[in-house]
Write a structure and sequence with these properties.
The complex is a heterodimer. Helix content of chain A is 30%, strand content 13%. Chain A is α+β, with helices and mostly antiparallel strands. In chain A, strand 3, helix 3 and strand 4 (166-172) form a beta-alpha-beta unit. In chain A, helix 1 runs antiparallel to helix 2 (108-120), helix 1 (2-20) packs antiparallel against helix 3 and helix 2 packs across helix 3. Chain B is mainly beta. A six-stranded antiparallel beta sheet of chain B has the order 1-2-31-30-29-28, with no helix packed on it. In chain B, strands 3, 4, 5, 6, 7 and 8 form a six-stranded mixed beta sheet that branches. Chain B has a four-stranded antiparallel beta sheet with strand order 11-10-9-32, with no helix packed on it. The chains are: A alpha+beta, B mainly beta. The interface between A and B is large, with 45 and 56 residues.
Chain lengths: 199, 446
């Protein structure tokens, strides 16, 4: 398909554009080894909120809206031949540096694989959940998670995914993958999770 | 009745100065583990007072009600005053007499105990609707500072005691009391299984869950009249602002669209909410009419703008922006216009909150990886760091501006930090389980 061919031809340029967005300030940011991409808390969470009054103690009409939990990531994200694979079987977590929303170079092949997979499976949608570590104010971190999710969205769009397939959302520091007040936990929490919608 | 402020610069007799015991030393200890409901908060002292505390005696009020179990109003009053670090209440066991009115007092008995003020009172009438009469006495001037009669009711004993503490506090410090106010905050249960929006009394007691969710709840904010809370809920899968009537639990989304909205802040007239709205991954400040209608975009910048806060007159909006290097506080007219940078000390100042009636602003200040609460003077831009961090956030002022509550990430533990500006006392409120965070101190309600 000619769409694919174009994508391939443009790939080096697109990647250059995506990576140019990295604000590597002088020093080459040495990425911390990313934790195992197996999704944390993969259990499906039934969402919903129930409100009550402080005065009467009466339970008010609470809205219950179901939210799908992230699906379980399968294998480390490579095929038997060692190639990065896209789609639900690929690497599903992209990690970030502190207070940064630029994508580290190590993820270029991972994102290429997802972009190509989405281009080939245009009926499939993926939710990009941006997260931040606990440092900094919760509201600022919500915006930071959004910028991270958007960085992945832009990269995937550049790599062949359609914008209708991508849904970026931020949870800020509210849903950490790891508990703990140290760099080991923080490095696992600065992330974007790719959540392929099951349909 | 004569009213006078005994702290108001009156010269103290030298004999009292020499005989005064050293300032009360509050060590890192559990001060109050009152017999309370299961979800009540634990209150510990992290930092002791740096100022001289006023020696006061709060004499147990005489119970003249014929029926019913006596209620200890004085105990609540004493605890309220002691928590601020501005008062050093005398122990009951050292009180030789327990007068119930000024006329019964022998002032020399109190002078030898180095007490400067004495609160006496009695409770009479029916048990369902008792009358509480009390009197605040200046021991050295030998006069009554305050005489009051309050009507109480069986379900409002605690509220009456807080009201008495407010009156004593105002009489002795000149600042309006903050004991009759409420707090809102978020409790996250272990494993983040449940997020609870909680409303509690200013001392952390009587916590009531007003919203439960399996999805995150953030950024509670009180309406100026204390009747409503705005907050962020993720129940729709992304951040959305809701307003909820506190008394009834009635709630509705403010921003029911696909764009995430967060960090709600009320205008002083209660008609508008400033909200950080995220459109195409760009967060800007929007002004929403509370009663519905389309939002007006206030900031137009590709950087992140969030954490808005109205000025007390409603004419300006302060907010955090990282348009420069790192987040800093900016201000602009609430009807639009040019934004000006406000904070200049260091590379990270965020989440502005204005001190009521004063030219000061609380911020989250980061330096060397430590996040601390700072108090910035808006006139000379100087910054005074109040807390040690390393992960303090979400400051919110008491309505009298004399204390602030914040999300405390201290080496001694996590919880809600309460910092009393006049004494330097910092306390930590913690739940028996889970984490308490994102507090908002409500307005005066009487």
């Amino acid at each position: 398909m000619n769409f694919r061919k174009n994508t391939k031809a443009c790939l080096p340029i697109l990647l250059a554009v995506v990576l140019a967005a990295c604000e590597t300030s002088g020093t080459a940011a040495q990425p911390e080894p990313g934790p195992d991409p197996a999704g944390p808390d993969a259990a499906t969470a039934a969402g919903g909120a129930t409100a009550a009054g402080a005065g009467s103690g009466a339970i008010a009409s609470g809205t219950v809206i179901n939210r799908e939990g992230p699906p379980v990531a399968a294998e480390p994200g490579r095929s038997a031949s060692g190639d990065w694979i896209g789609g639900p079987q690929g690497t599903l977590v992209i990690y970030f540096d502190y207070d940064r929303s630029s994508i580290r170079e190590e993820y270029s092949q991972v994102l290429q694989a997802h972009g190509a997979w989405l281009a080939a499976n245009q009926g499939q949608a993926v939710r990009l959940e941006g997260h931040a570590d606990e440092r900094g104010t919760p509201e600022y971190n919500l915006a930071l998670g959004s910028r991270r999710a958007n960085a992945v969205t832009q990269a995937l769009t550049a790599l062949g995914a359609g914008s209708a397939q991508l849904n970026a959302v931020s949870f800020g520091e509210e849903r950490p993958a790891a508990e703990g007040a140290d760099e080991i936990a923080w490095s696992q929490n600065r992330r974007v999770e790719l959540v392929y919608e099951t349909n | 009745m004569k009213l006078r402020n005994i702290l108001g610069g009156r010269a103290s007799p030298p004999s009292r100065r020499t005989r005064r015991p050293p300032p009360q030393v509050l060590c890192l200890a559990v001060l109050a583990l009152l017999p309370l409901a299961a979800s009540a908060q634990l209150d510990i002292v992290i930092t002791r007072s740096t100022q001289r505390a006023i020696p006061i005696a709060v004499v147990p009020f005489e119970w003249r009600v014929t029926l019913g179990l006596p209620y200890d109003f004085a105990e609540i009053v004493e605890a309220d005053l002691a928590r601020t670090g501005q008062f050093a209440p005398m122990g009951r066991e050292t009180m030789i007499t327990r007068p119930t009115s000024f006329s019964e007092m022998r002032l020399t008995n109190w002078r030898i105990m180095d007490v400067e003020a004495v609160l006496v009172g009695h409770v009479s009438g029916s048990e369902a609707n008792p009358t509480v009469e009390f009197e605040l006495v200046d021991v050295y001037a030998g006069e009554s500072l305050l005489v009051y009669r309050l009507q109480s009711s069986r379900d409002a004993f605690r509220a009456t005691a807080h009201r008495i503490a407010d009156l004593v506090y105002e009489q002795l410090t000149g600042a309006r009391g903050m004991f009759s106010t409420r707090l809102a905050y978020v409790q996250v249960t272990p494993g983040r299984e449940e997020f609870r929006l909680i409303v509690a009394d200013a001392d952390g007691q009587n916590p009531i869950v007003v919203l439960r969710s399996t999805d995150p709840i953030m950024s509670p904010s009180w309406s100026p009249d204390g009747a409503w809370l705005a907050y962020v809920s993720f129940e729709a899968g992304h951040a959305e602002v809701f307003v909820q009537e506190v008394a009834t639990g009635q709630r509705r989304p403010l921003s029911p669209d696909r764009n995430s909205a967060s960090a709600p802040a009320w205008s002083p007239d209660g008609r508008f909410l400033a909200v950080a709205r995220n459109v195409n991954a760009n967060s800007d400040i929007y002004i929403y009419p509370v009663d519905g209608g389309s939002p007006q975009r206030l900031t137009r910048h590709s950087a992140t703008e969030t954490e808005p806060e109205f000025s007390p007159d409603g004419d300006r909006v302060y907010f955090t922006s990282d348009r420069g290097i790192g987040p800093q506080v900016y201000v602009m007219p609430s009807r639009g216009g040019r934004a000006q940078r406000v904070s200049f000390t260091g590379s990270y100042n965020a989440r502005p909150r204005l001190q009521p009636d004063r030219n000061q602003m609380a911020v989250v200040h980061q330096q060397d990886g430590r996040f601390r609460i700072g108090l910035m003077d808006l006139r000379d831009e100087s910054l005074r760091l109040l807390t040690d961090g390393p992960l303090d956030e979400s400051p919110s002022f008491a309505p009298n501006g004399r204390a602030l509550i914040f999300g405390a990430g201290t080496t001694a533990g996590r919880g809600l930090g309460v910092y009393f500006i006049d004494s330097g006392v910092m306390r930590l409120l913690r739940a028996p389980e889970g984490i308490l965070r994102e507090p908002a101190w409500g307005p005066h309600e009487n």
